[in-house]
Amino acid sequence: MQRKFKRQISSLSQIFSFVSEFLTSYQVDESILFSINLAIEELFTNIVKYNRTTNSDITIDITKVEEKIIAKVIDHNCDEFDVSKTQEVDITRRLEERKVGGLGLHLVKKMVDDIKYEYSNGESRITFTKNLE
Amino acid sequence: MFDVKILENNNIEFSGRLDATQTEQAEKILEQVNTSCTLDMKSLEYISSAGLGILLMHQKRLKDAGHAFRLINLNKHVRDVFMLTGFDQIFEIM
Question: Looking at domain A2-131, which of 3.30.565.10, 1.10.150.20, 1.20.1250.20, 3.40.50.790 is its CATH number?
Answer without folding.
Answer: 3.30.565.10
